C-alpha cells in the first residue's frame, strides 16, 4: 500500500481522505484496486431493478436519484455507461494516464465512459468539490450537491436541485452520513417520497436512520445476506472491525474474520408502496 494503513478514523476505517481531494480519480481507483473494492458492482444490478420498478410504478421514463457519497461518480458510471467496475479499476493502472494533465485525463474519460443513458438523472452528493466536479464534467452525474449536511441545512438553490427525486442510494457513506442528513433531505423534498437503498457496513448501526424514516411513514427491510465491500487495509483495521462487531454482538465468522468488510442492503419504502408489490427479483434479497 502506498498510504498509511495503520491510522484509523472515528468509524474504525483506514483514513483515505487523500484519494478524494484530487481533480481526477486516478489515486481513488489505484487505492481501491489494492483493496479489492467490489460493492458498487454488486449494488448496480439491484439499483437497476429498483429503477425499473420505479419507472413502471410511477409511469415515468426518467428516474431522478441522489447518490449520497458519490465521490467520483462510480455508481453513475455503472448506471449510465456500459463500463464495469473492473473496467474502471483496470483503466487507471495504465502508466500513460499518469502523464496526462487533469484536464486531458478528464476529457479522455468523458469520451471513454460515454455515459449516454438519458433516462437516469443523478444528483451527486458529496463533501469533495474536486470529486463532484470531475463527475459532473464527465457526465456521470447531472447535478451536484456539495456540503456536509450533518452540519448545515440545504440552501434554497440546493432544495430546487433535489426536487422530484424518486430514489436515494449509497454504497458506503452511511456512518459518516447519519439520520441528520437523511432527515435534512426528506424535509427539503416535495412532493415525492423517494425509495431509499443504502448498503451499510455491519459495523454501523442503522437504527437512528430507520427511526427517522419510520416517523414519516417508511418501512425498512434488511437484506438476508451481506455483500462484500472491500478487503481490510491492515491488521489494525481488521482488529478494530472485529472489536466493534463483538461490542454489537454480531458474529463475524466466515465474513469479517476472513479479512473483508461486509455490508447489508437496507431498503426503505414509503407508505405509498406495498413491499409485496415489488418484483420478485428485488424481494428475493429480503
What can you see in these coordinates?
- 36% of the residues lie in helices and 16% in strands.
- It is α/β, with parallel strands linked by helices.
- The protein has one domain (17-283): Rossmann fold (3-Layer(aba) Sandwich), CATH 3.40.50.150.
- Strands 1, 2, 3, 4, 5, 6, 7 and 8 form an eight-stranded mixed beta sheet that branches.
- Helix 6 (129-137) links the parallel strand 2 and strand 3.
- Helix 2 crosses helix 3 (74-80) and helix 8 (179-188) runs parallel beside helix 9 (207-214).
- The two termini are 36 Å apart.
Concise account of the structure shown:
The protein has 286 residues and is α/β, with parallel strands linked by helices.
How is the topology of this model organized?
Layout: H1 26-34, H2 39-57, E1 63-68, H3 74-80, H4 85-91, H5 102-113, E2 120-126, H6 129-137, E3 143-146, H7 156-161, E4 167-170, H8 179-188, E5 195-201, H9 207-214, E6 219-222, E7 227-231, H10 235-247, E8 260-269, H11 280-283
Parallel strand pairs: 1-2, 1-4, 2-3, 4-5
Antiparallel strand pairs: 5-8, 6-8, 7-8
Helix pairs in contact: 2-3, 8-9
N-to-C span:
36 Å
Calculate the mean pLDDT score and round it.
94
Number of helices: 11
Let me know the largest β-sheet: 8 strands, mixed
State the CATH topology. Rossmann fold
- How would you describe the shape? globular
- CATH homologous superfamily identity: Vaccinia Virus protein VP39
Low-confidence stretches: none
What structural category characterises the helix and strand content? alpha/beta
Please tally the β strands and state the result: 8
Beta-strand residue fraction: 15-25%
Oligomeric state of the chains present here: single chain
Which CATH class?
A: Alpha Beta
How many distinct domains?
1
Secondary-structure element pattern, one letter each: HHEHHHEHEHEHEHEEHEH
How much helix is in the residues?
25-40%
CATH architecture: 3-Layer(aba) Sandwich
Q: Gyration radius, to the nearest Å?
A: 18 Å
